[in-house]
Amino acid sequence: MNGIVSYGAYIPSHKIETGEIASVWGADGSAWAKNLNVYSKSVPGPDEDVITIAVEATRIAMKRAKLNGTKIGAIYTGSESHPYAVKPTSTIVAEAIGATPNLTAADFEFACKAGTAAIQTCLGIVGNKQVENGIAIGVDTSQGAPGDALEYSASAGGGTMIIGKEKVIATINHTTSYTTDTPDFWRREGQKYPRHGGRFTGKPAFFKHVMMCGKMIMDMAGSKPEDYDYVVTHQPNGKFPIRAAKSLGFTEEQYKTGLLTPRIGNTYSGAIFLGLSAILDIAKPGDRILAVAYGSGAGSDGFDLTVTDEIAKMDRSETVEDMISRMEIINYATYAKYRGKLNMGDSK
Amino acid sequence: MRDVSIIGVGITKFGELWDKSLRELGLETGLAAINDAGITSNDIDALYIGNMAAGSTLQQEHVSALIADYCGLANQNIPATRVEAASASGGLAIRQAYMAIAGGFIDVAVVGGAEKMTDVSDSESSYTVSMGSDEQWEAKAGATFTSLHAIIAQNHILEYGTTREQLSAVAAKNHYHASLNPMAQFPFALDPTAVSKSGMVSTPLRMLDCAPNSDGAAAVVLCASEKAQKYTDKAIKIIGSGQASDTLSLHHRKYLHRFPAINIAAKKAFEDCNKKPSDLDVIEVHDNFTISEIIALEEIGVFNRGEAAQKSMEGETRLGGIMPTNTSGGLKARGHAPGATGIAQIIELVKQLRGEAGDRQVENAKLALAENHGGTAATAVVHILEAE
Amino acid sequence: MSVPRFWRELDTRYNLIGSYCKITNTYHYPRRSFNPEAGRDSIGSMEDYQFKGTGTVVTATVVHQAQTGYEMFGPYCMAIIELDEGPRITSQIVDCEPNNVKSGMKVKSVFRKLGEDSESGILHYGTKFILSEKTNTEDSNEDTIENIEL
């Protein structure tokens, strides 16, 4: 059966703590950290962006699968912070992994679920034998406006899933989507920071879509929460995913491995890829995984996966936990410098 | 080959010359050199212009024609040639004129060097200097010109145990010399501890290890020696001239603590005149950084490898020492206007050999050497001058 | 930098593509079609070669006055690195405390943004290096204390 042939993750090596951000705005850091269940978030260096993160994650995935670029027939990169408004991220990734020129490529945007839409597209073109392997990437370096609630969580990171039919480490048994027009979060063309609907992002948006999609995928698979070893959902903060998982009938044992936002913040399109990567880092053959992505605007993509014997043969070093443990704390001044929040005027 | 002499010199003060343009600087020094030589414009057979960066700093190329025109030589249709080899442009322009005269093609040439480094911002002038290294694989990769010399300094330290105090002594000595030179950009003495405590630019090099990016111009008149007495009785003969190149990128060199191009150019110049380093009375070297002066002294052969730093510390390169070095103040304190620097070095030596160096006169100076290089010494030019 | 000037060297910068000389059995970076050691015989004998991206620090310096375009890093580490195959390269070493980088340390390549033409211009990507092993920060703390006592 078709599924995940390989995976790779990348998290930048800098982080800022919630308390440090709060102190700049005279806010109560421990209250913010507790309310959001976000204690630190990753920060990209001045030379890191969606493209560099996508390349690093994809190179890890290629190395793990011992694939060379000529085996890749498609690259789709999902992000809401592509460095170019016009010019694809995916072609740069293709060049950097030696996959050019015999492939198709495009960039996707669907808020935080653009990457899982790319997985579904890859499943389609692998399924109808258009390509041998397709690469789906979910990655973001999103920013919250200074002082906005989003500033405490918006972070950077991403992951790559190589979708194919040979040497699959996790079969994708079922996938489905739940999509409506729900304007809970958006960024207009040319605007630097996104806007959001405050508490409207909760019940009618994140919870409704994730819950509905979660139920649909389990109906499709004929499964119950207790059939799964792991569950991972989109995680805009550390609270929403726990509440959603519990409401669907899952336990802490099932959701804790894929729940990274408390330590790395909200990586947007990268979140479900990183959570799934953390699970694949330790999963054993036969484990079952339920994954439900969410993207504002709004929609959810659900996946039912089963880990295969192939995973035991794979070199799974460079884990998500390794990347989290190497993160070094920076202060707000450095964060502001790295994230381009200083007004340099025309001096440059 | 014919002998070639320097029969006239002219120089501006180096520094932040806000009110002077490149063409005015060229005219001013050209006229001064012509007056000093006692020639008229009708005597000039050719003009050579040393300039590194007019294209980057002034968006003006073709500066040979520009200066010829502004100096009133356009109506004589004199051949005018620009020479560019980063900071070695001036020294190399002299060598081109020297070869043309020695080869019998012309009799009299004016060689001018001029640079405007302050018509652009500090970051632009710094980047312009970086263009003397490999712009694509050094500068663009994040290496400043100072950082490349910092790597060289670290290797010199590793190889020979060169110390902070020894580097500071070089800058302090050059400032002392500049305090005796009214034409210097920084005509004041500097305590070596001030150098050691100045701001870090790129470890281990500090602000006062670095020469400034200056405006300035300098010009000399070169003449076939056999015709020199027609114009002047104070001609100074060029008895040796050498030039060598090396890899543009520092990382492609076998040794990171040496400047082999200087060594080869110096050997060639010494061979020309059958002289040796110990015969020299006074020298000017390209101290764009303190470490560069130390390495230049070793490459020329004034001191053994690994000994120049200590000799500098002991005062042997100071006026009164065994080899007075950079009596003008050097690039560090006279100032460094890339296209003019190599010519300014020659002018200092002409003044020393004529006995016109005032308070900084080296007693009985007869033989002098100038070393001028570009980039991380990917081009080096050495000239040896003798009083007639 | 003009678009074609960067574009024509994309694979050299992205994937560390250099040259291997079949005559002298030596490696060269960046790519060149002529090996000075082998002279004109090398023309036509230079093959593309993708470097592994691992190497050793030859000499490192901490840049306090940044190069144009590198202002947001300062201070940062610039180094001459010897790739395992032999050739040397000048590169920034990122994601580290710059003062901790020493000669002999092992490094590996990473894909990073090198710069941009302007806010509206093309973005430049390529290779930089990181330390292969995390440096021992306890050691550097001791160094700092020693420095203060001096």
From TrEMBL, chain A:
EC number assigned by the record: 2.3.3.10
Pathway, per record: Metabolic intermediate biosynthesis; (R)-mevalonate biosynthesis; (R)-mevalonate from acetyl-CoA: step 2/3
Signal peptide: none
Claim: Magnesium is one of the keywords in the record: no
Segments passing through the bilayer: none
MF term (GO), any: acetyl-CoA C-acetyltransferase activity
Biological-process GO terms, alphabetical: farnesyl diphosphate biosynthetic process, mevalonate pathway; isopentenyl diphosphate biosynthetic process, mevalonate pathway
Domain Beta-ketoacyl-[acyl-carrier-protein] synthase III C-terminal: 219-298
SUPFAM superfamilies referenced in this protein's UniProt entry, alphabetically: Thiolase-like (SSF53901)
Reaction(s) catalysed (UniProt annotation): acetoacetyl-CoA + acetyl-CoA + H2O = (3S)-3-hydroxy-3-methylglutaryl-CoA + CoA + H(+)
Enzyme superclass (EC): transferase
Domain of life, source organism: Archaea
Binding positions for (3S)-3-hydroxy-3-methylglutaryl-CoA per the UniProt entry: 28, 112, 153, 201, 234, 243, 266, 296
Alphabetized UniProt keyword annotations: Acyltransferase, Isoprene biosynthesis, Transferase
InterPro entries reported for this sequence: ACP_syn_III_C, HMG_CoA_Synthase, Thiolase-like
Chain residues that bind CoA: 199, 239
Active site: 80, 112, 234
Subunit structure: Interacts with acetoacetyl-CoA thiolase that catalyzes the precedent step in the pathway and with a DUF35 protein. The acetoacetyl-CoA thiolase/HMG-CoA synthase complex channels the intermediate via a fused CoA-binding site, which allows for efficient coupling of the endergonic thiolase reaction with the exergonic HMGCS reaction.
HAMAP family: HMG_CoA_synth_arch
Family: Belongs to the thiolase-like superfamily. Archaeal HMG-CoA synthase family.
Role according to the record: Catalyzes the condensation of acetyl-CoA with acetoacetyl-CoA to form 3-hydroxy-3-methylglutaryl-CoA (HMG-CoA). Functions in the mevalonate (MVA) pathway leading to isopentenyl diphosphate (IPP), a key precursor for the biosynthesis of isoprenoid compounds that are building blocks of archaeal membrane lipids.
Record's protein name: Hydroxymethylglutaryl-CoA synthase
Species of provenance: Marine Group III euryarchaeote CG-Epi3
UniProtKB/TrEMBL annotation, chain B:
MF GO annotations: acyltransferase activity, transferring groups other than amino-acyl groups
InterPro entries in UniProt: Thiolase, Thiolase-like, Thiolase_C_2, Thiolase_N
Gene3D superfamilies xrefs: 3.40.47.10
Positions of the Thiolase C-terminal domain: 242-386
Xref: SUPFAM superfamilies: Thiolase-like (SSF53901)
Record's keyword annotation contains Transmembrane helix: no
Protein name: Acetyl-CoA acetyltransferase
Domain Thiolase N-terminal: 4-188
Gene Ontology process terms (BP): isoprenoid biosynthetic process
Family matches, as PANTHER family: ACETYL-COA C-ACETYLTRANSFERASE, ACETYL-COA C-ACYLTRANSFERASE
Key words of the record: Isoprene biosynthesis, Transferase
From TrEMBL, chain C:
Classification via Pfam families: OB_ChsH2_C (PF01796)
Sequence ranges assigned to domain ChsH2 C-terminal OB-fold in this UniProt record: 50-112
InterPro entries: ChsH2_C (IPR002878), NA-bd_OB-fold (IPR012340), Thioester_dehydratase-like (IPR052513)
PANTHER family recorded: BLR3430 PROTEIN (PTHR34075:SF5)
The protein's name: ChsH2 C-terminal OB-fold domain-containing protein
Organism, as annotated: Marine Group III euryarchaeote CG-Epi3
